[in-house]
Amino acid sequence: MVVGDLVTGCDVLVVGGGPGGYVAAIRASQLGKDVILVEKDELGGVCTNHGCIPSKALIHAANLIHDMKNPGDIGIKSSVEFDFKKIQEWNSGVVKRLRDGIGYLCKKYGVEVTKGEAYLESSERARITLQDGRTSTLKFKNAIIATGSRSSEFPEFPYDGQLVISSKEALSLSEVPVDMVIIGAGYISIELGTMFAKLGTRVKIIQRSPRILTRVESEAVEIVSRKMEKLGIEVYLNSKPEGMRIENGRARVAISSKDTEKRTELAADKILVAVGVDPNSNNIGLENTGVELDKKGFIKVDERRRTTDTRIYAIGDVAGPPFLAHKAFREGKVAAEVIAGLPGAFDNRAVPAVIFSDPEIATVGLDEESAKESGFEISTGKFPFRASGRALTMDRTDGFVKVVANKKNGELLGIHIVGANASELISEASLSIEMAAFLEDMAVTIHPHPTLPEALAEAAEAALGRAIHI
């Protein structure tokens, strides 16, 4: 791309190089389009650099440390020390390797990557501002907006990057905090709270509602809650954070309880705010196009990921929930293929979700309540991991697999897993729902023994009324 007053052009402008953006750019280039990808920060977006990847690396390290310190009744004795700075160096290396890989793939497939910011001046023209301040005008035939989202602010606790932090800063800390207060009890709070507790932090979680993980099946949440209690995590339900004061260089967070009407103060070295996300749909010139936003600021799209402006598409977090990298991957491919004239559409039946708690929770499709609300008469089957030979050999017997099916014909509607390696088990479940499989299909599929996936077939058999091992 030439920088200066000269107007240059491309077939597809992709704004944002996160999971959705770089996949869309590569796929469009594979399909013969001239693609320019504009990213103001680092390729890979929040997921690769400040979210999915670094969090899972640190969770893995914390799990190793905790498991070595707490081997259970197996008969192993150990003494464990760890160097958190070294762990973070390893973590940074993992992130860099993946980020460099994305850059390599973009180059290999002919995607022109520009470091800077894009501002739409119309439905076919954008002003590109490079990191050194130089600008250029770019004319495009189609644009894909993939600018992602950012952590929502909590009014009484504005981010300062030092004391009051988002998940981004939490994942880049150089020292393990002594005391951490977490505002919010969604999946980020539970994942990071559990991780820090295993590293030795005294963790306190403040939640306005009566339970954590409000959108997750209650039976699964109960198992995770019990483990959090064993880890010493304090959870203040039905409570509201009201403000903070500084005393001897540390924060004192004031909370009030709806249940007791008492006011409590909690000590904190770090205050992690994790109360949701806001779309990055402002300051990119959408008002100069025909793109419409919903009342929360997310870009409205159809099943082809096309916005209300026929030249412009939107994918990933900026196009609304669920806020999942794998959903953005799929959307990026759809948008690129539609632009290339292929009959693509985001028509997936199943979008799995995973919470890397302890134990893990993974879910796909409808739960019992939502299935009933959708008008289905349902049948369910559950298989506990305490009856699994493989779970017993791993000393990981907490949790279960539950299947939800249409009682009339046995079609699988949802599968929910809480337990060890749930994140690895959910893909078979997701494929089953995507393929419109039935209970009988899962039940008669031979699963190798002894393995955790056997629990999927066992749960299906339970729903069919012919359970063997429970």
Automatic annotation (TrEMBL):
It catalyses: N(6)-[(R)-dihydrolipoyl]-L-lysyl-[protein] + NAD(+) = N(6)-[(R)-lipoyl]-L-lysyl-[protein] + NADH + H(+). It is an enzyme of class 1 (oxidoreductase). Its EC number is 1.8.1.4. Keywords: FAD, Flavoprotein, NAD, Oxidoreductase, Redox-active center. It comes from Candidatus Methanoperedens nitratireducens. SUPFAM superfamilies: FAD/NAD(P)-binding domain, FAD/NAD-linked reductases, dimerisation (C-terminal) domain. Residues 351-460 form the Pyridine nucleotide-disulphide oxidoreductase dimerisation domain. GO terms for molecular function: dihydrolipoyl dehydrogenase (NADH) activity; flavin adenine dinucleotide binding. Its cofactor is FAD. InterPro entries: Class-I_Pyr_Nuc-Dis_Oxidored, FAD/NAD-bd_sf, FAD/NAD-binding_dom, FAD/NAD-linked_Rdtase_dimer_sf, Lipoamide_DH, Pyr_nuc-diS_OxRdtase, Pyr_nucl-diS_OxRdtase_dimer. This is Dihydrolipoyl dehydrogenase. Binds 1 FAD per subunit. Residues 11-332 form the FAD/NAD(P)-binding domain. Belongs to the class-I pyridine nucleotide-disulfide oxidoreductase family. One of its GO terms (biological process) is 2-oxoglutarate metabolic process. The active site is a redox-active disulfide bond.
